[in-house]
Amino acid sequence: MVPNRPFRPTPTNAKGKLLEAAVQLVRGNGFAATSVDQLCAHAGVTKGAFFHHFASKEALGVAAADYWSECTGAFFAEAPFHHHADPVDRVLGYIDLRLALIGGPVESFSCVAGTMVQEAFRSSAAIRIACEASIIGNARALEADIAEAMVQRGVTGTTAESLSRHVQVVIQGAFVVAKTQEESAAPDMARDALRHLRRYFEFLFRVPQERSADQ
Amino acid sequence: MVPNRPFRPTPTNAKGKLLEAAVQLVRGNGFAATSVDQLCAHAGVTKGAFFHHFASKEALGVAAADYWSECTGAFFAEAPFHHHADPVDRVLGYIDLRLALIGGPVESFSCVAGTMVQEAFRSSAAIRIACEASIIGNARALEADIAEAMVQRGVTGTTAESLSRHVQVVIQGAFVVAKTQEESAAPDMARDALRHLRRYFEFLFRVPQERSADQ
DNA sequence: CCGACCATACCGACCGGTTGGTATGGCGCA
DNA sequence: TGCGCCATACCAACCGGTCGGTATGGTCGG
Question: Which of A163, A174, B91, B173 gives A169 a disulfide partner, CB atoms 3.0 to 4.6 angstroms apart?
Protein backbone atom coordinates (compact mmCIF):
# COMPACT_ATOMS: atom_id res chain seq x y z
CA MET A 1 0.00 0.00 0.00
CA VAL A 2 1.09 3.55 -0.53
CA PRO A 3 4.28 4.51 -2.35
CA ASN A 4 7.57 4.06 -0.69
CA ARG A 5 8.55 7.44 0.64
CA PRO A 6 7.00 10.77 -0.24
CA PHE A 7 4.58 11.02 2.64
CA ARG A 8 6.90 9.55 5.24
CA PRO A 9 9.50 11.91 6.67
CA THR A 10 13.08 10.62 6.55
CA PRO A 11 13.82 9.46 10.08
CA THR A 12 16.89 10.81 11.87
CA ASN A 13 17.24 8.64 14.97
CA ALA A 14 18.24 4.98 15.01
CA LYS A 15 14.79 3.70 15.91
CA GLY A 16 13.10 5.50 13.03
CA LYS A 17 15.77 4.45 10.58
CA LEU A 18 15.34 0.82 11.65
CA LEU A 19 11.57 0.99 11.18
CA GLU A 20 12.02 2.51 7.76
CA ALA A 21 14.56 -0.16 6.86
CA ALA A 22 12.13 -2.81 8.05
CA VAL A 23 9.35 -1.50 5.82
CA GLN A 24 11.60 -1.46 2.78
CA LEU A 25 13.40 -4.76 3.30
CA VAL A 26 10.40 -6.77 4.47
CA ARG A 27 8.34 -5.69 1.48
CA GLY A 28 11.04 -6.99 -0.82
CA ASN A 29 12.31 -10.08 0.94
CA GLY A 30 9.74 -10.98 3.57
CA PHE A 31 10.17 -10.97 7.32
CA ALA A 32 11.95 -14.27 7.95
CA ALA A 33 14.42 -13.74 5.12
CA THR A 34 15.40 -10.31 6.43
CA SER A 35 18.13 -10.64 9.05
CA VAL A 36 18.83 -8.28 11.90
CA ASP A 37 22.27 -7.61 10.42
CA GLN A 38 20.72 -6.62 7.09
CA LEU A 39 18.29 -4.31 8.86
CA CYS A 40 21.13 -2.64 10.74
CA ALA A 41 23.31 -2.28 7.64
CA HIS A 42 20.44 -0.76 5.65
CA ALA A 43 19.59 1.62 8.47
CA GLY A 44 23.23 2.52 9.02
CA VAL A 45 23.21 1.56 12.71
CA THR A 46 24.78 -1.23 14.73
CA LYS A 47 23.32 -4.30 16.28
CA GLY A 48 23.68 -2.70 19.68
CA ALA A 49 21.32 0.04 18.61
CA PHE A 50 18.84 -2.50 17.31
CA PHE A 51 18.54 -4.39 20.56
CA HIS A 52 18.56 -1.20 22.54
CA HIS A 53 15.29 -0.15 20.89
CA PHE A 54 13.68 -3.54 20.24
CA ALA A 55 13.63 -6.47 22.62
CA SER A 56 13.70 -8.96 19.76
CA LYS A 57 13.29 -9.28 16.03
CA GLU A 58 9.65 -10.12 16.65
CA ALA A 59 9.21 -6.85 18.56
CA LEU A 60 10.65 -5.02 15.56
CA GLY A 61 8.05 -6.74 13.40
CA VAL A 62 5.25 -5.56 15.66
CA ALA A 63 6.67 -2.03 15.75
CA ALA A 64 7.01 -2.00 11.96
CA ALA A 65 3.36 -2.96 11.54
CA ASP A 66 2.33 -0.23 13.99
CA TYR A 67 4.54 2.29 12.21
CA TRP A 68 2.91 1.24 8.95
CA SER A 69 -0.56 1.68 10.43
CA GLU A 70 0.27 5.21 11.52
CA CYS A 71 1.77 6.23 8.19
CA THR A 72 -0.99 4.81 6.02
CA GLY A 73 -3.72 5.94 8.39
CA ALA A 74 -2.49 9.53 8.32
CA PHE A 75 -2.03 9.45 4.55
CA PHE A 76 -5.54 8.27 3.79
CA ALA A 77 -7.11 10.49 6.45
CA GLU A 78 -5.74 13.55 4.66
CA ALA A 79 -6.52 12.39 1.13
CA PRO A 80 -8.79 14.68 -0.93
CA PHE A 81 -11.37 12.01 -1.83
CA HIS A 82 -13.08 12.74 1.51
CA HIS A 83 -14.31 16.08 0.13
CA HIS A 84 -16.78 14.56 -2.32
CA ALA A 85 -20.34 15.32 -1.27
CA ASP A 86 -21.70 12.00 -2.53
CA PRO A 87 -20.59 9.04 -0.35
CA VAL A 88 -20.48 6.86 -3.47
CA ASP A 89 -17.93 9.25 -4.94
CA ARG A 90 -15.90 9.00 -1.75
CA VAL A 91 -15.82 5.21 -1.94
CA LEU A 92 -14.92 5.20 -5.64
CA GLY A 93 -12.45 8.01 -4.93
CA TYR A 94 -10.68 5.77 -2.43
CA ILE A 95 -10.37 3.01 -5.01
CA ASP A 96 -9.11 5.49 -7.60
CA LEU A 97 -6.49 6.71 -5.15
CA ARG A 98 -5.37 3.15 -4.50
CA LEU A 99 -5.18 2.68 -8.27
CA ALA A 100 -3.05 5.78 -8.64
CA LEU A 101 -0.62 4.58 -6.00
CA ILE A 102 0.25 1.44 -7.96
CA GLY A 103 3.40 1.73 -10.04
CA GLY A 104 7.07 0.82 -10.16
CA PRO A 105 8.46 -2.31 -8.49
CA VAL A 106 6.01 -4.32 -6.39
CA GLU A 107 7.92 -3.67 -3.18
CA SER A 108 7.26 0.04 -3.61
CA PHE A 109 3.47 -0.28 -3.56
CA SER A 110 2.75 -3.52 -1.69
CA CYS A 111 1.78 -3.86 1.95
CA VAL A 112 4.13 -4.68 4.84
CA ALA A 113 1.32 -5.98 6.99
CA GLY A 114 0.01 -8.32 4.31
CA THR A 115 3.50 -9.62 3.65
CA MET A 116 4.31 -10.18 7.32
CA VAL A 117 1.06 -11.81 8.34
CA GLN A 118 1.47 -14.43 5.63
CA GLU A 119 4.68 -15.63 7.26
CA ALA A 120 4.04 -14.96 10.90
CA PHE A 121 0.34 -15.66 11.50
CA ARG A 122 1.11 -19.00 13.08
CA SER A 123 4.49 -18.37 14.68
CA SER A 124 3.81 -14.97 16.26
CA ALA A 125 0.46 -13.91 17.64
CA ALA A 126 1.83 -10.44 18.38
CA ILE A 127 2.77 -9.83 14.75
CA ARG A 128 -0.50 -11.30 13.53
CA ILE A 129 -2.49 -8.94 15.73
CA ALA A 130 -0.44 -5.90 14.72
CA CYS A 131 -1.02 -6.76 11.07
CA GLU A 132 -4.70 -7.29 11.71
CA ALA A 133 -4.87 -3.84 13.26
CA SER A 134 -3.22 -2.36 10.18
CA ILE A 135 -5.35 -4.09 7.56
CA ILE A 136 -8.68 -4.12 9.37
CA GLY A 137 -8.01 -0.57 10.54
CA ASN A 138 -7.58 0.47 6.94
CA ALA A 139 -10.91 -1.18 6.17
CA ARG A 140 -12.66 0.54 9.02
CA ALA A 141 -11.55 3.96 7.76
CA LEU A 142 -13.78 3.41 4.72
CA GLU A 143 -16.68 1.78 6.52
CA ALA A 144 -18.67 4.92 7.31
CA ASP A 145 -18.60 6.12 3.70
CA ILE A 146 -19.70 2.70 2.49
CA ALA A 147 -22.49 2.57 5.06
CA GLU A 148 -23.73 5.98 3.99
CA ALA A 149 -23.59 5.03 0.33
CA MET A 150 -25.51 1.83 1.03
CA VAL A 151 -28.31 3.72 2.75
CA GLN A 152 -28.46 6.32 0.03
CA ARG A 153 -28.65 3.76 -2.78
CA GLY A 154 -30.70 1.22 -0.87
CA VAL A 155 -28.12 -1.56 -1.01
CA THR A 156 -29.09 -4.68 0.95
CA GLY A 157 -27.85 -8.22 1.34
CA THR A 158 -24.48 -7.35 2.85
CA THR A 159 -22.94 -5.00 5.40
CA ALA A 160 -20.60 -2.04 5.24
CA GLU A 161 -18.18 -3.95 7.45
CA SER A 162 -18.08 -6.89 5.06
CA LEU A 163 -17.72 -4.63 2.02
CA SER A 164 -14.95 -2.54 3.54
CA ARG A 165 -13.02 -5.70 4.32
CA HIS A 166 -13.58 -6.92 0.80
CA VAL A 167 -11.82 -3.83 -0.47
CA GLN A 168 -8.76 -4.84 1.52
CA VAL A 169 -9.06 -8.43 0.30
CA VAL A 170 -8.90 -7.33 -3.32
CA ILE A 171 -5.98 -4.98 -2.61
CA GLN A 172 -4.02 -7.70 -0.78
CA GLY A 173 -4.83 -10.27 -3.45
CA ALA A 174 -3.75 -7.85 -6.16
CA PHE A 175 -0.35 -7.57 -4.49
CA VAL A 176 0.08 -11.33 -4.25
CA VAL A 177 -0.83 -11.94 -7.87
CA ALA A 178 1.29 -8.98 -9.01
CA LYS A 179 4.26 -10.63 -7.34
CA THR A 180 3.92 -13.59 -9.69
CA GLN A 181 4.71 -11.27 -12.61
CA GLU A 182 7.97 -9.84 -13.82
CA GLU A 183 8.53 -6.27 -12.76
CA SER A 184 7.18 -4.53 -15.84
CA ALA A 185 3.89 -6.45 -15.88
CA ALA A 186 3.18 -6.35 -12.14
CA PRO A 187 1.56 -2.89 -11.82
CA ASP A 188 -0.89 -3.52 -14.68
CA MET A 189 -1.98 -6.79 -13.14
CA ALA A 190 -2.60 -5.12 -9.78
CA ARG A 191 -4.50 -2.24 -11.35
CA ASP A 192 -6.66 -4.64 -13.30
CA ALA A 193 -7.92 -6.19 -10.07
CA LEU A 194 -8.79 -2.83 -8.56
CA ARG A 195 -10.75 -1.91 -11.67
CA HIS A 196 -12.90 -5.01 -11.13
CA LEU A 197 -13.39 -3.93 -7.55
CA ARG A 198 -14.47 -0.51 -8.77
CA ARG A 199 -16.94 -2.06 -11.16
CA TYR A 200 -18.38 -4.20 -8.39
CA PHE A 201 -19.11 -1.06 -6.41
CA GLU A 202 -20.57 0.62 -9.47
CA PHE A 203 -22.98 -2.31 -9.81
CA LEU A 204 -23.82 -2.24 -6.10
CA PHE A 205 -24.40 1.50 -6.02
CA ARG A 206 -26.08 1.55 -9.45
CA VAL A 207 -23.66 4.06 -10.93
CA PRO A 208 -24.79 5.00 -14.47
CA GLN A 209 -22.53 3.59 -17.18
CA GLU A 210 -21.22 6.94 -18.50
CA ARG A 211 -20.17 8.02 -15.02
CA SER A 212 -18.46 4.75 -14.35
CA ALA A 213 -16.04 5.22 -17.23
CA ASP A 214 -14.62 8.55 -16.10
CA GLN A 215 -11.59 7.13 -14.43
CA MET B 1 -6.46 -23.66 -2.02
CA VAL B 2 -7.99 -27.06 -1.69
CA PRO B 3 -8.15 -28.99 1.54
CA ASN B 4 -5.07 -30.56 2.92
CA ARG B 5 -5.24 -34.18 1.94
CA PRO B 6 -8.25 -36.05 0.66
CA PHE B 7 -7.57 -35.72 -3.03
CA ARG B 8 -3.81 -36.19 -2.75
CA PRO B 9 -2.60 -39.78 -2.38
CA THR B 10 -0.24 -40.36 0.54
CA PRO B 11 3.21 -40.53 -1.02
CA THR B 12 5.40 -43.55 -0.33
CA ASN B 13 8.82 -42.55 -1.63
CA ALA B 14 11.12 -39.97 -0.11
CA LYS B 15 10.63 -37.40 -2.86
CA GLY B 16 6.86 -37.47 -2.58
CA LYS B 17 6.97 -37.32 1.19
CA LEU B 18 9.25 -34.29 1.02
CA LEU B 19 6.94 -32.52 -1.41
CA GLU B 20 3.98 -33.25 0.82
CA ALA B 21 5.89 -32.00 3.85
CA ALA B 22 6.78 -28.84 1.92
CA VAL B 23 3.14 -28.14 1.12
CA GLN B 24 2.08 -28.55 4.72
CA LEU B 25 4.94 -26.72 6.43
CA VAL B 26 5.21 -23.85 3.96
CA ARG B 27 1.50 -23.11 4.22
CA GLY B 28 1.84 -22.76 7.98
CA ASN B 29 5.24 -21.15 8.41
CA GLY B 30 6.23 -19.74 5.06
CA PHE B 31 9.13 -20.80 2.88
CA ALA B 32 12.06 -19.02 4.50
CA ALA B 33 11.03 -20.01 8.02
CA THR B 34 10.79 -23.68 7.05
CA SER B 35 14.21 -25.30 7.35
CA VAL B 36 15.51 -28.29 5.43
CA ASP B 37 15.86 -30.15 8.72
CA GLN B 38 12.22 -29.52 9.56
CA LEU B 39 11.18 -30.70 6.14
CA CYS B 40 13.18 -33.91 6.54
CA ALA B 41 11.89 -34.57 10.04
CA HIS B 42 8.29 -34.04 8.98
CA ALA B 43 8.74 -36.29 5.96
CA GLY B 44 10.55 -38.92 8.01
CA VAL B 45 13.66 -38.93 5.80
CA THR B 46 17.22 -37.74 6.20
CA LYS B 47 19.09 -34.83 4.76
CA GLY B 48 20.89 -37.14 2.40
CA ALA B 49 17.58 -38.05 0.82
CA PHE B 50 16.66 -34.40 0.52
CA PHE B 51 19.75 -33.38 -1.39
CA HIS B 52 19.64 -36.53 -3.44
CA HIS B 53 16.30 -35.49 -4.92
CA PHE B 54 16.63 -31.70 -4.83
CA ALA B 55 19.72 -29.74 -5.77
CA SER B 56 18.89 -27.01 -3.27
CA LYS B 57 16.15 -25.70 -1.03
CA GLU B 58 15.17 -23.37 -3.85
CA ALA B 59 14.74 -26.37 -6.17
CA LEU B 60 12.46 -27.94 -3.58
CA GLY B 61 10.41 -24.75 -3.61
CA VAL B 62 10.04 -24.91 -7.37
CA ALA B 63 9.14 -28.61 -7.22
CA ALA B 64 6.59 -27.96 -4.48
CA ALA B 65 4.89 -25.30 -6.59
CA ASP B 66 4.83 -27.68 -9.57
CA TYR B 67 3.47 -30.47 -7.38
CA TRP B 68 0.82 -28.08 -6.15
CA SER B 69 -0.10 -27.12 -9.72
CA GLU B 70 -0.56 -30.77 -10.65
CA CYS B 71 -2.68 -31.60 -7.61
CA THR B 72 -4.97 -28.59 -7.83
CA GLY B 73 -5.18 -28.80 -11.60
CA ALA B 74 -6.31 -32.40 -11.48
CA PHE B 75 -8.74 -31.73 -8.66
CA PHE B 76 -10.52 -28.87 -10.40
CA ALA B 77 -10.47 -30.62 -13.76
CA GLU B 78 -12.48 -33.48 -12.29
CA ALA B 79 -14.87 -31.36 -10.26
CA PRO B 80 -18.58 -31.74 -11.05
CA PHE B 81 -19.28 -28.04 -11.70
CA HIS B 82 -18.11 -28.61 -15.28
CA HIS B 83 -21.30 -30.55 -16.01
CA HIS B 84 -23.60 -27.53 -15.84
CA ALA B 85 -25.02 -26.73 -19.25
CA ASP B 86 -25.04 -22.97 -18.64
CA PRO B 87 -21.51 -21.48 -18.62
CA VAL B 88 -22.66 -18.97 -15.99
CA ASP B 89 -23.53 -21.89 -13.73
CA ARG B 90 -20.09 -23.34 -14.31
CA VAL B 91 -18.41 -20.12 -13.27
CA LEU B 92 -20.59 -19.71 -10.20
CA GLY B 93 -20.14 -23.42 -9.51
CA TYR B 94 -16.40 -22.94 -9.39
CA ILE B 95 -16.77 -20.15 -6.86
CA ASP B 96 -19.17 -22.27 -4.81
CA LEU B 97 -16.66 -25.12 -4.81
CA ARG B 98 -13.95 -22.77 -3.61
CA LEU B 99 -16.33 -21.60 -0.91
CA ALA B 100 -16.99 -25.18 0.17
CA LEU B 101 -13.26 -25.90 0.44
CA ILE B 102 -12.76 -23.19 3.06
CA GLY B 103 -12.79 -24.46 6.63
CA GLY B 104 -10.56 -25.41 9.54
CA PRO B 105 -7.18 -23.76 10.14
CA VAL B 106 -5.96 -21.36 7.47
CA GLU B 107 -2.99 -23.54 6.56
CA SER B 108 -5.40 -26.29 5.54
CA PHE B 109 -7.15 -24.24 2.85
CA SER B 110 -4.64 -21.56 1.84
CA CYS B 111 -2.35 -21.65 -1.18
CA VAL B 112 1.31 -22.72 -1.22
CA ALA B 113 2.03 -20.77 -4.37
CA GLY B 114 0.57 -17.55 -3.00
CA THR B 115 2.48 -17.96 0.23
CA MET B 116 5.79 -18.70 -1.47
CA VAL B 117 5.65 -16.00 -4.10
CA GLN B 118 5.17 -13.34 -1.43
CA GLU B 119 8.54 -14.22 0.06
CA ALA B 120 10.52 -15.30 -2.95
CA PHE B 121 9.38 -13.10 -5.82
CA ARG B 122 12.51 -10.98 -5.56
CA SER B 123 15.08 -13.48 -4.34
CA SER B 124 14.25 -16.40 -6.63
CA ALA B 125 13.00 -16.01 -10.18
CA ALA B 126 12.58 -19.77 -10.49
CA ILE B 127 10.17 -19.93 -7.56
CA ARG B 128 8.34 -16.83 -8.77
CA ILE B 129 7.78 -18.39 -12.18
CA ALA B 130 6.65 -21.72 -10.73
CA CYS B 131 4.15 -19.89 -8.54
CA GLU B 132 2.99 -17.84 -11.49
CA ALA B 133 2.37 -21.05 -13.41
CA SER B 134 0.30 -22.40 -10.54
CA ILE B 135 -1.85 -19.33 -9.93
CA ILE B 136 -2.22 -18.12 -13.50
CA GLY B 137 -2.72 -21.71 -14.61
CA ASN B 138 -5.58 -22.01 -12.16
CA ALA B 139 -7.04 -18.84 -13.66
CA ARG B 140 -6.70 -20.13 -17.18
CA ALA B 141 -8.65 -23.27 -16.31
CA LEU B 142 -11.71 -21.06 -15.79
CA GLU B 143 -11.12 -18.71 -18.69
CA ALA B 144 -13.07 -20.61 -21.35
CA ASP B 145 -16.17 -20.86 -19.17
CA ILE B 146 -15.99 -17.15 -18.39
CA ALA B 147 -15.51 -16.29 -22.06
CA GLU B 148 -18.52 -18.37 -23.01
CA ALA B 149 -20.64 -16.81 -20.29
CA MET B 150 -19.59 -13.32 -21.40
CA VAL B 151 -20.66 -13.97 -24.96
CA GLN B 152 -23.94 -15.51 -23.88
CA ARG B 153 -24.83 -12.60 -21.59
CA GLY B 154 -23.31 -9.89 -23.74
CA VAL B 155 -20.77 -8.73 -21.17
CA THR B 156 -18.37 -6.08 -22.46
CA GLY B 157 -15.78 -3.72 -21.01
CA THR B 158 -13.39 -6.41 -19.80
CA THR B 159 -11.89 -9.72 -20.91
CA ALA B 160 -12.23 -13.31 -19.79
CA GLU B 161 -8.50 -13.34 -19.08
CA SER B 162 -8.77 -10.35 -16.77
CA LEU B 163 -11.85 -11.75 -15.03
CA SER B 164 -10.34 -15.20 -14.52
CA ARG B 165 -7.30 -13.59 -12.93
CA HIS B 166 -9.53 -11.49 -10.74
CA VAL B 167 -11.02 -14.69 -9.32
CA GLN B 168 -7.55 -15.71 -8.22
CA VAL B 169 -6.88 -12.23 -6.83
CA VAL B 170 -9.92 -12.45 -4.56
CA ILE B 171 -9.03 -15.98 -3.47
CA GLN B 172 -5.43 -15.02 -2.64
CA GLY B 173 -6.54 -11.85 -0.89
CA ALA B 174 -9.08 -13.81 1.12
CA PHE B 175 -6.28 -16.04 2.40
CA VAL B 176 -4.11 -13.09 3.40
CA VAL B 177 -6.88 -11.32 5.26
CA ALA B 178 -8.03 -14.58 6.86
CA LYS B 179 -4.51 -14.97 8.27
CA THR B 180 -4.97 -11.76 10.24
CA GLN B 181 -7.77 -13.46 12.19
CA GLU B 182 -7.65 -15.95 15.00
CA GLU B 183 -8.31 -19.49 13.90
CA SER B 184 -12.05 -19.62 14.60
CA ALA B 185 -12.83 -16.41 12.70
CA ALA B 186 -10.57 -17.01 9.71
CA PRO B 187 -12.79 -19.24 7.55
CA ASP B 188 -15.78 -16.91 7.80
CA MET B 189 -13.68 -13.97 6.75
CA ALA B 190 -12.39 -15.86 3.72
CA ARG B 191 -15.86 -17.05 2.74
CA ASP B 192 -17.23 -13.53 3.00
CA ALA B 193 -14.80 -12.35 0.34
CA LEU B 194 -15.75 -15.15 -2.05
CA ARG B 195 -19.42 -14.28 -1.62
CA HIS B 196 -18.66 -10.75 -2.82
CA LEU B 197 -16.85 -12.24 -5.77
CA ARG B 198 -19.89 -14.36 -6.53
CA ARG B 199 -22.13 -11.33 -6.36
CA TYR B 200 -19.85 -9.45 -8.75
CA PHE B 201 -20.30 -12.22 -11.28
CA GLU B 202 -24.04 -12.25 -10.68
CA PHE B 203 -24.11 -8.55 -11.54
CA LEU B 204 -21.91 -9.05 -14.58
CA PHE B 205 -23.94 -11.97 -15.90
CA ARG B 206 -27.26 -10.44 -14.86
CA VAL B 207 -28.28 -13.40 -12.73
CA PRO B 208 -31.85 -12.88 -11.40
CA GLN B 209 -31.97 -12.16 -7.69
CA GLU B 210 -33.84 -15.32 -6.62
CA ARG B 211 -31.32 -17.53 -8.38
CA SER B 212 -28.41 -15.72 -6.85
CA ALA B 213 -29.53 -16.61 -3.34
CA ASP B 214 -29.59 -20.38 -3.82
CA GLN B 215 -26.16 -21.02 -2.47
C1' DC C 1 29.03 27.50 39.01
C1' DC C 2 30.15 23.10 40.09
C1' DG C 3 31.02 18.22 39.93
C1' DA C 4 28.61 13.79 41.57
C1' DC C 5 25.14 10.99 39.79
C1' DC C 6 22.43 8.86 36.56
C1' DA C 7 19.46 7.76 32.40
C1' DT C 8 19.42 7.29 27.56
C1' DA C 9 21.50 6.21 23.16
C1' DC C 10 24.53 3.68 20.95
C1' DC C 11 28.72 0.67 19.84
C1' DG C 12 30.89 -3.77 18.23
C1' DA C 13 33.03 -8.04 19.77
C1' DC C 14 31.33 -12.20 20.96
C1' DC C 15 28.31 -16.59 21.92
C1' DG C 16 25.90 -20.95 21.18
C1' DG C 17 22.94 -22.87 18.06
C1' DT C 18 21.09 -23.47 13.44
C1' DT C 19 21.42 -22.96 8.62
C1' DG C 20 21.89 -24.83 3.77
C1' DG C 21 24.93 -27.76 1.76
C1' DT C 22 28.71 -31.63 1.10
C1' DA C 23 31.47 -35.93 1.30
C1' DT C 24 31.32 -40.59 1.82
C1' DG C 25 29.76 -45.06 2.34
C1' DG C 26 26.41 -48.87 2.46
C1' DC C 27 22.63 -51.55 0.61
C1' DG C 28 19.39 -53.68 -2.41
C1' DC C 29 18.19 -54.63 -7.08
C1' DA C 30 19.33 -55.08 -12.26
C1' DT D 1 29.41 -55.00 -11.14
C1' DG D 2 27.11 -50.97 -11.28
C1' DC D 3 23.74 -47.64 -10.18
C1' DG D 4 19.82 -45.52 -7.97
C1' DC D 5 18.50 -44.52 -3.33
C1' DC D 6 19.32 -43.16 0.93
C1' DA D 7 21.85 -42.69 5.85
C1' DT D 8 25.61 -40.73 8.68
C1' DA D 9 28.85 -37.45 9.69
C1' DC D 10 30.39 -33.22 9.08
C1' DC D 11 31.34 -28.20 7.65
C1' DA D 12 31.64 -23.11 7.25
C1' DA D 13 28.60 -19.33 7.29
C1' DC D 14 25.23 -17.11 9.36
C1' DC D 15 21.52 -16.54 12.72
C1' DG D 16 19.25 -13.94 16.74
C1' DG D 17 20.69 -12.34 20.88
C1' DT D 18 24.09 -10.86 24.85
C1' DC D 19 27.27 -8.07 27.12
C1' DG D 20 30.77 -4.81 28.73
C1' DG D 21 31.63 -0.50 27.60
C1' DT D 22 31.43 4.68 25.87
C1' DA D 23 29.50 9.33 24.75
C1' DT D 24 26.17 12.67 25.89
C1' DG D 25 23.33 15.47 28.36
C1' DG D 26 20.20 16.59 32.16
C1' DT D 27 19.53 17.26 37.17
C1' DC D 28 20.61 17.56 41.42
C1' DG D 29 22.81 19.28 46.25
C1' DG D 30 26.35 22.36 47.77
Answer: B173
